[in-house]
Amino acid sequence: MNDLELLVQSATEAFVAAATPADLENAKARFLGKSGSLTELLKGMGALSVEDKKTRGAAINQAKQQVEAALTARRQALADDELALQLRAESLDVSLPGRRRGEGGLHPVSLTLERMEAIFGSMGFAVADGPEIETDWFNFTALNTPEDHPARSMHDTFYVEGGNLLRTHTSPMQVRYAVQHVKQHAEAVGRGERIPEIRVIAPGRTYRVDSDATHSPMFHQCEGLWIGEAVSFTDLKAVFADFFRNFFETDDLDIRFRPSFFPFTEPSAEVDIAFASGPLKGRWLEVGGSGQVHPNVVRNFGLDPEKYIGFAFGLGPDRLTMLRYGVNDLRLFYEGDLRFLSQFQ
Ligand code: DAH
C-alpha cells in the first residue's frame, strides 16, 4: 500500500469511528483542514518537476476525492442514525387502548330526588318546580304564618334585596301549585262543581342560616300535597308506608306520627321511621313533617275549607340520602370531593 492508499484508509477509519457529527468534523480537519495531512501533501508539490507534478497531483487529487466520498458517506450514516433514533422515540403504538374521558354522574342527592319523583309519580303525584328566591307571602304569610307569628323564629332566614328571601322550605310550592290548579279550574269552582284532586310533590333546594354535621345552609326538601274532598290521615300513612318501603327497598320498616306543631297544618305530626334490621335497627329516625292542611291555607289556595281537605308533608332528601347510603356527615355532600362523590356512580 502506498502512502496515499494508507492515508485514504486511515481517514476512512477515523470517519467511521466518529460517533457524532462533532467528532466527524474534528476527524475531517485532521485530513482535509488547513493543516490536514492531504493539504500538507499538496503544499509539498512545489518542489517537484513538471512531470512529477502531473502524476503526483493526479494521485493526490484522486485520494482527496476518496477521502471526501468517505466523509460524505459517514455524514449521511450519522444523519440516518439520528433520524431513526428520533422516529423510535416518537413512535406511536396504535394498538394501545384510548384514553377515556372522565364520565360524570349524578350527585347522591340528585339520585334521591329522582328516586322520590319516580316513587311518588307511581302513586299519582305530579312533580312541580318553583323559585328559590321567594316572596314573604308564599314562604310565610300564605302558609298561615303572619309577620308576628312565633313560628317565623323557627326559620333563620336569608333575606335578599327588595324584601324577598331564599325560601326556608318547599312549602310555598303548595300554595303556588294549588293556586295555579284552582285557576285552571276557575269555571268549575265558580259553578260550585268539584275539581280534580291536587296531588303533587315539589322537591328542591331550601336555605337557612344553619351549619353543622347535620345542617347545611343550603339543603333539600320535598314538599307533598294531596287535597281532595275526603283525603285523610289514613291516606297519608298509606302514602308514607308505600313511599318509605319502596325508597329503602324493605318491608321491615315502621312508621309513626309524633304530635307536633306547624302553622300551616292542624293537626300536625313529625314523621319517624324505624328499621327492623340493619345497623339502625329499632331506632326512631325523624324524616319529615306533615299534617292536615290548615283551613286558612286551604282558603289561600282559593278553595273552600268546608269542602276541600287533605294533607301536606315535607321530607328531607338529604337525610334520606344519608340513611340510604350510611353517610354520617351531611357536609360531605357539599364539599365537591370526587373521592366521596364517585362512590355513588
Ligand atoms: N315546611 C316544614 C319545615 O320546613 C316541613 C313541613 C311540615 C312541611 C309539615 C309540610 C308539613 O308540608 O305539612 O320544617
Count of domains: 2
What do we call the CATH topology of the largest domain? Answer: BirA Bifunctional Protein, domain 2
CATH class of the largest domain: Alpha Beta
Strand order of the largest sheet: 1-4-5-9-8-7-6
What is the CATH-assigned architecture of the largest domain?
2-Layer Sandwich
What's the overall geometry?
Answer: rod-shaped
What Rg, in angstroms, do the CA atoms define?
45 Å
Could you name the CATH homologous superfamily of the largest domain? Bira Bifunctional Protein, Domain 2
The major beta sheet can be summarized as: 7 strands, mixed
The overall pLDDT average reads 92
Parts with pLDDT < 50 across at least 5 consecutive residues: none
Count of DSSP H/I helices:
12
Q: Which cofactors or ions or other ligands sit in this model?
A: 3,4-dihydroxyphenylalanine
Give the DSSP E fraction (strand runs of 2 or more residues): 15-25%
Helices and strands, in N-to-C order? HHHHHEEHEHHEEHEEEHEHH
- Rounded to the nearest angstrom, the distance between the terminal CA atoms is 83 Å
Strand pairing plus helix content: what structural class?
A: alpha+beta
Number of strands: 9
How helical, in percent, are the residues? 40-55%
Task: Describe how the helices and strands are arranged.
Blueprint: H1 3-17, H2 21-32, H3 37-43, H4 50-89, H5 108-122, E1 126-127, E2 133-134, H6 136-139, E3 165-166, H7 172-184, H8 186-190, E4 198-207, E5 218-228, H9 233-247, E6 253-262, E7 265-275, E8 285-293, H10 295-301, E9 309-315, H11 317-325, H12 338-341
Parallel strand pairs: 1-4
Antiparallel strand pairs: 2-3, 4-5, 5-9, 6-7, 7-8, 8-9
